[in-house]
Amino acid sequence: MSMRTAGRRAAVVLAASAAAWVMLAAPAHAQGTEASASTPAKKELVARVLKLQQPGLENIGRQLVEQPWLQMANAVRAEIGRLPQDKREAVAREIEADVRRYAEDAVPVVRDRAVALAPTTIGPLLEQRFTEDELRQLITILESPINARYQALGQEMQRALITKVVAETRAAVEPKVKALEQSVQTRLRAAGGGGGGASGPAAGPRRPASGAGN
Predict the structure, then answer these.
(1) What is the pLDDT of residue 187?
(2) Could you list the residue range(s) of the whole structural domain that residue 201 is in?
(3) Which burial class, exposed, middle or buried, applies to 203 when counting CB atoms under 10 A from its CB (0-12, 13-18, 19+)?
(4) Rounded to an integer, what distance in angstroms lies between the CA atom of residue 173 and that of residue 152?
(5) Phi, psi (5° rounding) for residue 28?
(6) What is the DSSP letter of 212?
(7) What residues have CB less than 8 Å from 129, skipping those under 6 apart?
(8) Helix, strand or coil for residue 206?
(9) Is the dihedral of CA 133, 136, 142, 143 positive or negative?
(10) When you count CB atoms within 10 A of the terminal residue's CB, does the N or C end of the chain come out lower?
C-alpha cells in the first residue's frame, strides 16, 4: 500500500471520525433553535472546548495513520511465516523499522490536520447544538481535575479491557475466523481467483499494535 493510498484512506476516515465524535458529544435534546444562534461569546467558548479536547483530536490522527498498517498486518505476518526460518526475524525487524518510519512521517501530518480542521468541522456543530450556558457547563466538566484523572486512565482502561476480551474470546472466535478464511479461499479458487493471497482476516481478535503511532 502506497503512502498516497494511506493518506486518502486517512482523510476519509478522519471526516467520519470527527462527525462521530460530535454526535456522541452532542446531547439529544440540543437540536432546537435555542442553541443554534452563533455569537462571538459562543465562538470563544467553542474554541476553549476544542482546545481542551486537543489531545483527543491528536489521538484521532494517530489512529488514522495506524489503520492502513493494521489492515496490512495479517497479510504481512502470513507472508513472513512463509519465509525460510533463518530469514524471518531479520525481515520482521526491517518491516518494523519501515512501519516506524511511516508513522514518524505520517502521524504529524494527519494529527496536525485533525486539530486544524476541528474548528471548521466540529466547531459549527457545537455552536448549533449547545447554548452558551451548556458550553460553559461542558468546559467546567472538561477542566475538572477529576475528569482529567479519568481521561488519563483511558488508555490503561482500554488495554485492560482488550486484554481480557481477547483472552476470553480467542478460543471461540479463532475457529470462526479460520472457517471464514477457508470459505473465502474456496470461493476465490472456484471463481478462478486462486485464493492464495495473504489478505485474510486475523486469527481471532488481537490487541491493537503498539508503537506504530506513538
Answers:
(1) 82
(2) 158-214
(3) middle
(4) 31
(5) -65, -30
(6) S
(7) 26, 27, 30, 31, 35, 36
(8) coil
(9) negative
(10) C
pLDDT at 132: 95
Are 135 and 74 within 8 A, CB to CB? no
Kindly report whether the global pTM for this prediction surpasses the value 0.70.
no
Amino acid (one-letter) located at 9:
R
What gap in Å lies between CA 180 and CA 201, rounded to an integer? 8
Q: Which residues contact 185 (CB under 8 A, 6 or more apart)?
A: 195, 196, 200
Evaluated on CA atoms 144, 146, 147, 149, the torsion sign reads: positive
Are 62 and 110 members of one domain?
yes
Select from 163, 69, 154 the least CA-distant residue to 110. Answer: 69
Looking at the fold, whether 146 and 182 belong to one and the same domain comes out as no
Cα–Cα dist 119/27, whole Å: 19
Q: From first to last of its 214 residues, what are the pLDDT tens digits of the chain?
A: 443 443 444 443 444 444 444 444 444 444 444 566 789 999 999 999 999 999 889 988 988 998 888 888 888 888 898 899 999 999 999 999 999 999 999 999 999 999 999 999 999 999 999 999 999 999 999 999 998 888 888 878 888 988 899 889 988 988 888 888 788 888 878 877 554 444 444 444 444 444 444 4
114 and 9 together in one domain: yes
Domain match, 145 and 96 both: yes
The C-alpha atoms of residue 68 and residue 62 are separated, in whole angstroms, by 11
